[in-house]
Amino acid sequence: MSEATKIPERCVIVVDSELPAGRAANAAAVIALTVGQRHPALVGLPLVDASGCEHPGLIPIGITVLAADRATLSALRDKGAGSGCDIIDFPVQGQQTTDYAAFREAVAHVATEELQYVGLALVGERKPISKIVAKLGLLK
Known about the structure:
It is a single chain. By secondary structure, this protein is α+β, with helices and mostly antiparallel strands. α2 runs antiparallel to α4 (126-133). The chain has a single domain, classed as Bit1 (3-Layer(aba) Sandwich). The radius of gyration is 16 Å and the shape is globular. The protein is built from 4 helices and 7 strands; from the N terminus they run βαβββαβαβαβ. It has helices spanning 21-38, 70-83, 100-108, 126-133; strands at 10-16, 47-48, 54-55, 64-68, 86-91, 117-124, 137-138.
């Protein structure tokens, strides 16, 4: 299997610990949808129940959902980029509007180093990701 088609070993989503439950769930869902689009090999084979009914395949490696404050989210993004992880980030502007064009416009006015995030995913090799998120707790 080539490096380009290699199935990632780990997928972690980290969400802003200060978000209310609904916004935290939204952030994790938005990020997970993009993870699936960018890494279709992470979707497992269909599940077939005892009646023969087929259910959509799910991610066989699981997704850990952790929590961190916004400053830590930015640092995690930087560490992930430095370790070669694929990063799916969700800037705060995405939860300030329901208009995707307005979201894109808002992000276009903020420099990369000044962006803040409601969440992000790190996808890639187990060891570097585990090291990056080792001190984080589960989202509660």
